[in-house]
């Protein structure tokens, strides 16, 4: 048995802001992917995945009992397949902010949800919000609390524009320019980040009036502008807003940036060779980078592992 492939995602803009109703833009990233598979002689990793699926299936049973109108699963088939050695075979790194649990949630929903909303039907806003709600409940098993956006992105394999909590739509983004010098890239921090503790820090900070004002008047403002610029292909304005956003994050989200990257972050803002921002909740994993000249960024970040995601 081998299920269809589900891809990782990158939240280009909106980390933390979407909790407070900023806009956001999430895109599928086909470099990493995962699929449900079955086998007999499982490796240690596959055994762990199989055990995690067993606990997940019990959790899904609870969701179904609590919310019978929201979602139901063919749990008999799921439990039988798990007993037969099913696991999630994935190249998506965990704790890197690229949606490893999202792809797994999408795969389970796709295979075992009864009366599922399919990718082929007319995806109205209502259907997208219902899917997001289902996925949020499902993915909470892994993160404690989930917006449901990562699995939604993985399930649809389309860019998703978040206008607000109750207003999301699939969108198109300008086609890549393979010859372009500008790029969005991933910078490997070399360590794993955990979502729950980072979100906890953010929620604590939100209790302070000064921090709340900064989020509302600076962070959300520049995040929204970046989303608008990216979708409309306004590269010049985008990099102006990115510089501001990178600065705001460095000043106000230090706990989410691994300490050894503080200087590198500042260097990008000072030289304009690249601008860094959080990829997901931060704390480790990948850091997102934007540059108008990839060759310059590579020189400035020599010795670091960079992966190009999108070319301008």
Major sheet description: 5 strands, antiparallel
CATH structural fold name of the largest domain: Ribosomal Protein S5, domain 2
Radius of gyration: 20 Å
CATH class of the largest domain: Alpha Beta
Number of helices: 10
Instruction: Based on Cα principal axes, name the global outline.
Output: globular
- Sequence of secondary-structure elements: EEHEHEHEHHEEEHHHHEEHE
SS strand fraction: 15-25%
What number of domains? 2
Helix share of residues?
A: 40-55%
Q: How far apart, in Å, are the first and last alpha carbons?
A: 39 Å
Name given to the CATH architecture of the largest domain: 2-Layer Sandwich
Low-confidence stretches: none
Q: Quick recap of the structure?
A:
With 312 residues, the chain is α+β, with helices and mostly antiparallel strands. Helices cover 46% and strands 20% of the residues.
Question: Which terms would index this structure?
Answer:
2 domains, Ribosomal Protein S5, domain 2, alpha+beta, 312 residues, 4-stranded antiparallel β-sheet, 10 helices, Alpha-Beta Plaits, single chain
Structure description:
With 312 residues, the protein is α+β, with helices and mostly antiparallel strands. The chain folds into two domains: 6-170, Ribosomal Protein S5, domain 2 (2-Layer Sandwich), CATH 3.30.230; 183-311, Alpha-Beta Plaits (2-Layer Sandwich). The protein is built from ten helices and eleven strands. Strands 1, 2, 4, 6 and 7 form a five-stranded antiparallel beta sheet that branches. Strand 6 and strand 7 (167-170) form a beta hairpin. Helix 3 (100-112) packs across helix 4 and helix 8 (235-252) packs antiparallel against helix 9 (262-271). It is globular, with a radius of gyration of 20 Å.
């Amino acid at each position: 048995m081998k299920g269809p492939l589900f891809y990782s995602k990158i939240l280009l803009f909106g980390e933390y802001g979407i909790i407070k109703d900023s806009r956001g833009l999430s895109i599928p990233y086909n470099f990493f992917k995962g699929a449900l598979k079955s086998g007999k002689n499982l490796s240690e990793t596959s055994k762990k995945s199989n055990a995690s699926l067993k606990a997940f299936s019990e959790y899904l049973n609870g969701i179904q009992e609590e919310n019978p109108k929201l979602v139901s699963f063919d749990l008999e088939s799921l439990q039988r397949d798990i007993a037969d050695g099913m696991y999630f075979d994935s190249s998506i790194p965990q704790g890197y902010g690229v949606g490893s649990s999202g792809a797994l949630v999408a795969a389970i929903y796709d295979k075992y949800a009864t009366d599922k909303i399919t990718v082929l039907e007319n995806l109205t806003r209502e259907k997208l919000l219902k899917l997001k709600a289902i996925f949020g409940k499902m993915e909470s098993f892994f993160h404690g609390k989930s917006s449901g956006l990562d699995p939604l992105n993985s399930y649809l394999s389309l860019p998703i524009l978040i206008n607000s909590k109750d207003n999301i739509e699939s969108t198109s983004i300008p086609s890549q320019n393979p010859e372009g010098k500008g790029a969005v890239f991933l910078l490997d921090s070399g360590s794993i980040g955990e979502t729950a503790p980072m979100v906890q820090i953010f929620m604590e900070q939100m209790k302070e009036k000064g921090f709340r004002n900064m989020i509302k008047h600076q962070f959300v403002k520049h995040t929204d502008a970046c989303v608008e610029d990216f979708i409309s292909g306004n590269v010049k304005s985008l990099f102006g807003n990115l510089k501001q956003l990178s600065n705001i994050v460095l000043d106000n989200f230090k706990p989410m940036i691994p300490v050894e990257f503080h200087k590198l972050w500042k260097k990008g803002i000072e030289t304009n060779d690249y601008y860094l921002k959080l990829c997901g909740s931060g704390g480790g994993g990948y850091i997102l980078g934007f540059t108008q000249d990839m060759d310059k960024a590579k020189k400035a970040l020599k010795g670091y592992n960079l992966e190009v995601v999108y070319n301008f």
